[in-house]
Structures
1.
Amino acid sequence: MNAKDLTLAYKVRHALDQSADNLPESTAKRLSSARKIALSRKKQESEQLAFAPHMASVGPSHSRHTFHFDNLTIWAGRMGVLIPLVFMVFGLLGLYRYEQREQLIETANIDAEVLTDDLPLSAYLDHGFNAFLANGTDDEN
């Protein structure tokens, strides 16, 4: 409530207090019984709120700074989605780096074999040589 609302509430309460003294006795008794009924209903509602865990933060006796079990379950539910997602992202990044490294090592091995071989580089560019290699491997089996 802001200051303007509080001022209005105090003025209304003051006006009601002043006019309460001028009420007839029968009206005062009816108002008193209505107040007792309202208070008894209010107490029943607040007792029901105390036993309802999902409504624990709604009750008047609870501060908004208190920690409730519901807050923990909401937090755990959110983390239950976020943590596996983070692990999945790091896992995929790790797999990507691993595959890149393996491809780099394989390419380096092929380059090393080509450079240390006795054949000239032009032999690898010849299409007939590729056919010879293909036929040569079939004959060995």
2.
Amino acid sequence: MSEHTQLIDALNVRITTRHYDADPIDPDAARQLESSIDAINTLSGLDIQLVQGHPDVFAADNASGHLANASNYLALVGPKGDPESLEKAGFYGQRLVLTATLYGLGTGWVAGSWDADRARSHCRVTGSQDLYLAITIGPSKTEAAYGSQDYEALCERQRTHRPSKTYEELTAPMEGDARDQAPDWFKAGVEAAAKAPSAMNGQPVLFAYDPVRSDAVARLDPAVSTGSLVDLGIAKLNFQIGAGAGTWLWGDGGRFIRS
């Protein structure tokens, strides 16, 4: 893959990886990733862990061809029964996904393609914690196939990789005039959120610009049954990167405070 140095670059080229190389993660990349994980855990109160060399967690899907050579994962662990931490797992998990992209690694959010009990046996989960879900990670056959392509070609690959909702669909709560007159930072945030992964590609997060408060609001779309707080967190992270300076308040209906 071409070298990228900004999170927005990673956001613009990253696609879900299902086929991995059998080689282990490069030790230098693993150390850098562990450093990023430590910083995020301190900031978020989560206990995200990099677990390597356990293909048994993905044995069924590796055997079926849904995945290939999946053996490493980010275990998203956090406080049990805490909705805010679920959203943070999406937000900060996506931050690590984009960081891994900058290190040349493939990633894939996992909901059903894993053995959660086996995954728990390979990571730390205390009695007060849950293993929310996992993110496969590793050297990627998919990315290796595009290693000679430039940034623009990789962006085009992502654009055509899967269907995406339009700006109008993702801002459905807004009236037409308000939608058109929203500031550029809001439009850029929605454009970035449109590239966020989500369960079953449901893209269940809707955004609205509030002209009175000059901020934005994100809500789960009740019409999308697959939507979750993890999806909300992922979409918020992408929006924040696209919009630039600003901070989200947690929760369904949380506001993006532009700074």
